[in-house]
Amino acid sequence: MPRDKKILIEGEGLHGAARIQAMCAVALSVLLALLDYAIANVALPTIGADLHISAASAVWIINSYQLASVIALLPTAALGARIGFGRLCQIGLVLFIVSSLFCGLSHSLLALSLSRAVQGIGGACIMSVSIALIRFIYPHEIIGRGIALNGVMVALGVGAGPTVASIILSVATWPWLFYINIPLGLAALVLALMSLPRTPTQEGTFDGASAILNALAFGAIILAGDSIAHHASALQVCAFALTGIVSGWLLVRRQKGQAHPMFPVDMLRIPPFRTGVSIGFLAFVSSNLFMVSFPFTLQNLFHCPPAVVGLLMTPWPVGIMLVAPVISRLSDQVPATILSSIGLFTTSMGFLALYMLPAAPHWFDIVWRVGLAGMGFGIFQPPNNRIMMVTAPAGRSGSASGMVQVSRQCGQATGAMLVAMTFGLIAWQPSMRCLQFACVVAFLGMLLSASRLFSGQDEQA
C-alpha cells in the first residue's frame, strides 16, 4: 500500500473515483470469498469420485472451509484493527490465491481439506474487515449505501456459486473451480493495493491466548452440533460441547476489562448492537434452513432435473439485488427497525407460500415465492447491519464488522445442522418440515426486530 496515503478518520469517507475504486476492491474481494464458499457444494460428488472417497468424507471439503472461517473471524478482525483493515484484506487475498492453487493441485482428501482450511482463513481475513472498511470508505450519512452493496455481493456470491460451478464443470475438470480464483484474486489484489484506504491502527487488540480460546469455543460448539446431526455417540457430543462451553467461559472472563477485547463483551452490553447480532443470527438460520433443504424438495418431491434446480433457486439472490438500489437509500433515511421487521416478515411469508405450494406446481409458482423471500431478505439485511455498525463505539469498527460476520456464519452453520438433524429424524417430507422451521424462525426474528420499537432501541443515526 502506498505510504503517501493519509490515514482516514472514521466516518470521513472517500469521494468520487477514490470511493468507487475502493468499494470495487471490497466488493470483488467479498464476492470471491463467498463464491468459493458456495462453488464447491455442487462439485462434491465429482470430487469424491475422483479422489475415491465416500460422500460423508467429501463433506469435509465444505466443513474445513466453514470451520476455519468461523473460528478465524474474530481474531482476524482484531488483527485488522492492529495492522490496518486494508492491509489485512490484502493478506487475505494473498492467502486465498495461494491456497486456491494448492486446492487445484491436491490429490487427496487431506491435502484438499487443509488447502480449503487456509482458504477459509483467507476468506475470514476479507469478510471480518469488509464492513469496517465500508465505514471508512463511505461518509457516515450515506454508509447504508455501502452496506447495501456489500449485502448484494454476499447474496450474489452465495446464490451464483452453484450456477458458476455447473458452467465450469460442463467444460472443465473440478480443479478449475479453484484455478479460476487465481486471475480473479490477482485482479482484486491489484485493485486493493491501489485503492483501499489507510485506517487507524490500535495496539493491544490481538491476544494469542484469546485467539486460541476463541478457536476452541466456536470450533467445538460447531463440531458438537455436527456430531448431533450425524448421530455420533453421546460421549463425543458431550466432549465437544463441554470443551466449547468451558473455552467460551474462559474467553469471556479473559476479555472482561480489556480496552479492546477480541470478543466484544462490552459491545454486547449495548442493546441495539446485541439485538442486531441476535436478529442476524436468526435470519441466517432461517435462510440456510431454506437454502440447504429446498433443492431436495425441488428434486425429490417435484421431480425437477438437477440443472433446473439451480435455476429455480436463482430468484433468491435476484430478489435481493432487485431491492438493493431502493434499500441502499432508504436505510439512511428510514429507521432500521421498520425496514428489517418488514423484510423478515416478507421472508417469512415467502417461506410460508413455498410450504403451501400445490402438489404439481408450475415453475412460475415457485419462482415468485422464492423471489419474494429473497426480496424480504434484501430489505432486512442492510438496515440490520447498519444499526450494528453505527451503534458500535468509535474505533471499534473491526470488532463490529467481525460480529456481523460471526452472526452470519454461525446462523448459516446452525441452519445447516438443523437441516441435517431434520433429515435424520423425520422420515416423511423432511425438506417441507425445514420450510416450516424456516418460516417460524424468520417470524421470530421479525418479532425480535419489531420489539426494538417498544424498547427504546430504535435509532435513526
TrEMBL record:
It comes from the Bacteria. It is a multi-pass membrane protein. It holds the Pfam family MFS_1. GO terms for cellular component: membrane. Its main location: membrane. Residues 22-457 form the Major facilitator superfamily (MFS) profile domain. Gene3D superfamilies: MFS general substrate transporter like domains, Multidrug resistance protein D. CDD domains: MFS_MMR_MDR_like. Signal peptide: none annotated. Keywords: Membrane, Transmembrane, Transmembrane helix, Transport. The chain crosses the membrane at residues 20-40, 60-81, 93-114, 120-138, 147-170, 176-196, 208-228, 234-252, 273-296, 308-327, 334-357, 410-429, 435-454. The keyword Ligase does not apply. It is found in: Membrane. GO terms for molecular function: transmembrane transporter activity. PANTHER family: MAJOR FACILITATOR SUPERFAMILY MULTIDRUG TRANSPORTER MFSC (PTHR42718:SF9). This is MFS transporter. It comes from Novacetimonas cocois.
